[in-house]
Amino acid sequence: MSVFGWLNDQLLRMTWLNDLVGAGVAAVGLDPASRIGGSVQFFVYDVIKIFILLSVLIFAISYVQSHFPPERTRAMLGGRSGLGANTLAALLGTLTPFCSCSSIPLFIGFTAAGLPLAVTFSFLISSPLVDLASVILLASIFSWPIALAYVAVGLVVAIVGGTIIGRLGMEDQVAEFVRTVPVSGEAATMTRNERLTYARDQVVEIVHRVWPYVLIGVGIGAAIHNWVPANVISAMLGQDKWWSVPVAVLVGIPMYADIFGTLPIAEALVGKGVGLGTVLAFMMAVTALSLPSLIMLKRVVKMPLLVTFTGVVTLGILSIGLIFNAMTHWFI
């Protein structure tokens, strides 16, 4: 365990980088213990760490993802139904795009291919909410138990949410054009070099897409960490406040960011005494219920189904937030 802890600190948390940045901040005449110096250290360290991890993880995961194109994923899910199919769809969602908006085209393809609504919604919820990169990034900021707990509850939300939507029999609430979208056949086999090129291109594309959100998230995190008094945060979002989880969800929904942009904010909030459940609820609301993704989803489903989807996922997130607030002492 000591070797694992050392590797986790050096490779994921990059404590050596934090020390190096702290020394650099001191070298330019700023005190890392001061508000300004601490903010600069937090910002520079988190930005560098997140982009290093992001690039490495996206490359590795995209290489794996190249083995699971939409055609193969549809084939794996085709003909399946029930809880097992929803579970498989949620698990496959962890290998697919990193934001809810880019999951919509896959949702259209699955629906056009005739997959059950329960399966497609389990996939749609899981895809932005949980991915392999989130496990590593959460572990780099918090701990492995918290990272694994986040992934577990995210999969539960996806599986249960898809199951409930499927049981409601709302197949007629999908836009008519979706079922007439042409479905491509077998996916072309990629060579090793093509997979490497695909993984590299995904790194460039995703980093280009998320870098503003990462900078904004780290900036907000630095401000919370060094400028907002802990008693102010505690008064608004303290673990003992019943309203903290609903407020976190309401704040998260209008935002649009990947999990990469929300992690620095979550890190700062936990450091100020905000309950783990409140922070997880905020992250889940941002990634699964962002307003832009709901607007895009409205193009492919009718209002009753959109309201049902939003309500089911919101109730799931609220429940998880409240449960984890009651269990925070298990993880921190």
Question: What does this protein structure show overall?
Answer:
The protein has a domain at 79-181 and 210-330. With 332 residues, it is mostly helical. Helix 13 (259-271) packs antiparallel against helix 14. The protein contains 16 helices and no strands. It is globular, with a radius of gyration of 20 Å. It has helices at 2-12, 15-27, 35-65, 70-77, 82-93, 100-112, 117-129, 132-141, 144-167, 192-227, 230-237, 244-252, 259-271, 276-288, 291-298, 303-326. It starts with a helix and ends in a 6-residue tail after the last helix.
Q: Beta fraction of the residues?
A: under 5%
Number of strands: 0
**Fraction of residues in H or I helices:** over 70%
Question: What is the averaged pLDDT score?
Answer: 82
How many H/I helical runs?
16
- Structural class comes to mainly alpha
Roughly how many Å is the radius of gyration?
Answer: 20 Å
Helix-strand string: HHHHHHHHHHHHHHHH
Low-confidence stretches: none
Could you say which overall geometry the principal axes of the C-alpha atoms support? globular
Q: What summary fits the major beta sheet?
A: none
